[in-house]
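worker-03 picked up job from queue 'complexes'. Input manifest follows; two sequence lines, order preserved.
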Amino acid sequence: MTDAAKPKKKGGILGVFKDIVYGMSTHEMTRHAVRTRASMEHLFILITMGDLLGVPILPPYYSLRLLPYVTPQIAGWKRRMLRERDVTDVLG
Amino acid sequence: MNTLLAVIIGALTVYLAYTLYARRIDRHVIQSDPKRATPATLYMDGVDFMPTNRNILFGYHFKSIAAAGPIIGAIVAANLWGWLPAIIWLILGVSFLGWASDYSGIVISVRNDGNSLSAIAHRLVSPRTRTILFVFIFFYLLLVAGAFVGIMATVLESQPKTQLGVIVLTVMGLLLGQMLYRWRTGLVGATVLTVGLTLIAILGGGWTEEVFKAFTAGLNNLSGGAPLVTYFDPTLANFKGADAKIMPSLLFWALAISAFCYAGSVLPIWRMAQPVIYVGFWITALAMVLGLTGALVAPFMKPEVAQFVIPAFRGFNPQLGPAGIMPLWPMLFVTIACGAISGWHALFGAVGTARQIQNEADMLPIGGGSMFAEFLLGLLALLAVSVGAKGAPVGAFATGLGGFISVWGLPIQYATSLAFAAFIVIVLVVTQLLFRVQRVTLSEWLGDVFPPCRNQHIASLICVALAILLMMTGTWVYLWQLFGGANQMMAALSLLLVTVWLASVGKNWMYAGLPAAFMWVTTCASILVTAYNLYSNVYQINMAAGRTIPVVGSALMILVALLLVVAALYIGLDTWRAFQRYRHRPVQQRKPAAARA
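worker-03 finished. Artifact:
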C-alpha cells in the first residue's frame, strides 16, 4: 500500500487540539501566503497570455518553456478572475 | 452566586441549546447533507475557495469572531443593569438567536455558491439593498473604530503599567513579520522569541511605570495643565453626570493608537497587521485560558475572588446623566452584542468561513459551535466584572480576570497586568483591521464620486480623523451602544436575508424569521433611544456650555444614528416585499451537485 492510499490516522484529542490552535493562530497567515502566491501567478499567466492565445508577445522560446508550469493553474486562475467581488470580500 | 455556578449554567446552556435546538434545525430544516458538494469543493481555486479541515476551520472562525465585543458589552451592561439581566440575555440570546445567525450566515453562502451576503441580497431582494448595505457597513465600522479608539486611549492613559507591553507588542509584531517573511526564520523559534519578550514586557510593566507617569505629566504640562477639550460625561459622578476633560496625554495616546492603525491599514498585511495579530493571539489565549479555568476552580482554591460583589439587578431604567433614559429593553440587547448575537459573525462567516467548508455536516459545529464558544468568552467577561467591581468598568474587568488568573499562583499585580494587556491587545488588533476594511469600503463607496478616496493614505486618514472626532465627544457609552445597535442590526439584516432565502426555497423560515423580527424592532428602537440620549444628555448640555467639539461630535453621531435607522427601514421594506413574493411562489431549485466519493 502506498503512502497516499493508507487511511489517515486521526490524532485523537491532541490532534483536534493541535488543529484548533493552528486554526486560531496560523491558518490566516497561511491563507495570506497563498493569496500572495496567487497574485504572483496572475502576473505569471499574464506574461504568457499571448502564447496561450497563440499571439506571441515575449520571445516565444522563453514563454513556451513557461507554458507547462502555467497550464495547470488556468482553471483556478479563471475562477479567481471571473468571480464577482464586493467590499465584504476583504473580510474573508 | 459564585463563578463555578455561573460556569456550570453556561456549560449547560451550550449543551442543551446545541443538542436540542441547533442540531434539530440543522437536520430537519436546513437538511445539511454530507454528500452534497460545497462551494469549496466545486469552485476550488486554491485561495479563497479551499476545502479545510473542520477543526482548523473552527479555530479560524472562532478567532475571527472573538474580539472585544463580548468583553466590553458585558462590562457595560453589568454596570448599568446588574449581572442578572446580563447573564439572562447572554443565555437566551445565544440559545435562540446567536447560533442561528452565525450558522445561517454560513449556510446561506454555502447554498448560494459561496456568495457574500450583499451579493445574495442583490439577487434575492433588490440592487438597492446591496448599496444600502455598503453604506451601513461603513458607518458600522466607523462607530466601532471610534468606540475602540476611545476605550483604548482611556485605558492606556490611566494605566501606565500597560504602556510598555503595548509598545513592545508593536515592535515584536514588526520583528516577527521581518523574521518570517524576510529572514525566513522558523515559526516556532520566532514565536517563542517575540511572544516571550512581549509577555515579559507586559508582566514587567511596573518597571517603567514611573517613567511613563513622568511622560504623561510632561505632556499635560504642554498645555499648562489646562484641558484641550471639556465635555459633559453622563457616566461620571455615579452616573449622575459631570464635566470631564480631555488632557493632551489622552489625545497623545489616541493619536498613537491611530498611527498604529494607520500603519496597519496601509502597510502590506504581512509587515504589521498579521504578525501583531499573531503575537496578540498567544497573549490573549493565555489570559483567557488561565482566566476561565481559574474561574472554574476559584471557589475551591481562592473563594475571595469567586464571589459576585456587584448588585444582581439595578433597575429597569437606571439613571445615566440628568436627562437620558436607559430602558432595559431595548438597550440591554444592543449593549451586550457579540456574546449573545452579532452581525459581524454572519458577515465574516459568509465570505471567510463558508468558502472553506468541505462538508455540509461541518456547518453547525463550526458556525454554531464558535458562537457558543464566544458566549463562554462573554460569560467570562461578565464573571470578571461581577467579582472585580473596583474602579472604572475596564479596571473592574481586569481586577476580576486578574483574580481568576492569580488562582494559579501568579502574584495578583502580575495577573492584573496580564488581564489589562489581554484586553488592550484584543481591542487593538481588531481596530487595526477595522481601519483596513473601512478604508476599502470608503474607496468603493465614494471612489467614483470623490476620486481622492481611492488613494489608500487619504482614505485611511479620513477614517482615522472621523474616529478621533467621535472619540472627542467623550461619550463612549453612547458610542458603544450605537455601535451595538448597528452590529445587532447587521445580525437582524442577515437573518432577514436568511428568512427570504428560506422562503424562496420553500423551507420553514421561523427559526430565522422570528429572531430577525425581534432584533430588527429592538435595534431600530435602541438606535432612536441612543439618538435621544445624545441629544438630551450631550448635545444640549455641551451646546449650553458653548463647547464646539462635543457638540459637533454628538451631532455627527445623531446623524449617523438617523442614517442607520433609515437604511434599516429601507432594507426591512425591501426584504418584506421579497419575502411576500417568495412565500407564495418559491423558486424552483436545481438539483445539487454531489460531492466526490
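worker-03 released lock.
The beta strands of chain B are 229-233, 242-246.
The longest strand of chain B covers residues 229-233.
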